Amino acid sequence: MTGAIGAIMATNNKQTSARVASTAGKTLGSPSASALQKSLAGSALRQSGSRAQTGAGIEARASRALDNPRSAAVTKTLAGTVVSQSNKKR
């Protein structure tokens, strides 16, 4: 699809849930959280209560985290949220 209709259909209007936003906030405040976890948390919080979409770079990092069997549960939770809010065309 092209034009305005195609652009509208490619938009992802999902938002971060309150539960995941809380997890993201705790992650950002945790001195033991990894840089990846903090990056994912920041992206998830940015999308809380807004129509912001995940950028291609953070989407790729989140996707790799989901594919990694060694990723922590909190990493997978944040990564799943970030990926689900990406541009539908990618």
Low-confidence stretches: 4-9
Number of strands: 0
- Rounded to the nearest angstrom, the radius of gyration is 13 Å
**Roughly how much helix do the residues carry, as a percent range?**
55-70%
Q: Number of helix segments?
A: 5
Average pLDDT, all residues: 86
Distance between the termini: 14 Å
SS-based structural class? mainly alpha
Shape: globular
Largest sheet: none
Portion in beta strands: under 5%
What order do the helices and strands follow? HHHHH
Describe this structure in words.
The chain is mostly helical. Helix content is 62%, strand content 0%. It is built from 5 helices and no strands. α2 (18-29) packs across α3 (35-46), α3 (35-46) packs parallel to α5 (73-84) and α4 packs across α5 (73-84). The two termini are 14 Å apart.
Annotate the secondary structure layout.
Blueprint: H1 3-10, H2 18-29, H3 35-46, H4 56-67, H5 73-84
Give descriptors for this structure.
single chain, 90 residues, mainly alpha, 0% strand
Short description:
By secondary structure, the chain is mostly helical. It has helices at residues 3-10, 18-29, 35-46, 56-67, 73-84.
